[in-house]
């Protein structure tokens, strides 16, 4: 029976023929994701990047479903329960994401992965009630997949590894909505190449070019989109505005109870799951709009800049950070409180890595299986991927108000311009 039919620009028709999946999508906790943008502030730069976490979650369910169905058909050890777990874990893997997730997490010390598991296992949530009504103990099994605790390693691989349903969906989806035409890989070919060896997912060598395109596309998305300097400028402004509000809260409780009642439990560091679930991008944007007429000069100015898109500018710099002192000095002379008007933003990524048992979160390797059934780690059979392996890419930027570069009347304008022209480097590199 067909419960719902979604039309998706990335995957085409996604039909839901399981009541369980339909009931989960219809919960309050999942529908909240319809009001949370997948790329938070990226639409300041990429005008099309308005896609939601709900669309991504349904997309991951769809890919997880295709992969699991294929593995079940070809392997006796893959049960119909494994397929259900993969579908449900795919759908729910991001349910704990909040509004402007990463910024919010840093400031209020929340953790979306822990909250995802809490939503799944807490008897107060609709998600938990749907899961437990379907089958007693199901919620724990799903949470164990998402938290990597499950012994069903292949199902974990499917949802969370260096090449999984989550990454395939977000790369294709983010590329589509940001117009990143360089991201191109054949997801059907990759899915069809998946096999089970020793209860782990491996990829047939016939899909090697598409696996390479996936890794390269991912690398390019990080360099161009996720680490985009203007995108990071919007994050910096958002972060500084929220930091100002948090610092003001103790002296202006009444003002914040009036303009931001749903943030109060977080300002007081005394919140529960239900408080968290009441926040989304819409709620936050309404708050920012109210703050743009705040009586506090700094909060009002930062919110005004956020609402009207006056983003900070930045300069690349090198260690040591003390080289930034001259810039900070000029900013202070111009009357800026550098705690709220500047920020250091570091963005680094490791495009592909082989297994290191000495790191906290070792990456699972992508394994390629050849015609003669030998299994090799991807970088051993792909010179292209080898070139990207174990190398970290990215930069460090110092952000400051944009008028420092455009308003000739600022004090020490030409010195500031000179210092920021080629980046601030300790060594003689330009
Ligand atoms: Ca995800």
Describe the 3D structure.
This protein has helices spanning 19-25, 28-31, 53-74, 80-92, 101-108, 112-121, 126-134, 138-146, 153-159, 165-178, 187-192, 208-226, 229-248, 253-259, 264-267, 273-277, 281-291, 297-308, 325-333, 338-341, 378-381, 383-388, 403-406, 413-420; strands at 4-8, 12-16, 194-197, 200-204, 313-316, 343-349, 367-369, 375-377, 393-400. The N and C termini lie far apart (63 Å). The mean pLDDT is 94. A hairpin with a 3-residue loop joins strand 1 and strand 2 (12-16). The radius of gyration is 24 Å and the shape is globular. The protein is of the alpha+beta class. The strands form three sheets. It has a four-stranded mixed β-sheet. The protein contains 24 helices and nine strands.
What's the helical proportion of residues?
40-55%
Bound molecules: calcium ion
What integer is the average pLDDT?
Answer: 94
Q: Please list the strands of the largest sheet in the order they lie side by side.
A: 3-4-7-8
State the distance separating the first and last CA atoms. Answer: 63 Å
The portion of residues forming beta strands comes to 5-15%
Annotation, overall tally of beta strands: 9
User: Would you identify the regions where 5 or more consecutive residues have pLDDT less than 50?
Assistant: none
- Tell me the Rg in angstroms: 24 Å
Class from secondary-structure proportions:
alpha+beta
Number of helices, where a helix is a run of at least 4 consecutive DSSP H or I residues: 24
Major beta sheet summary? 4 strands, mixed
* 3D shape: globular
Using brief descriptors, characterize the structure shown.
single chain, 430 residues, alpha+beta, 3-stranded antiparallel beta sheet, 24 helices, 52% helix, binds calcium ion
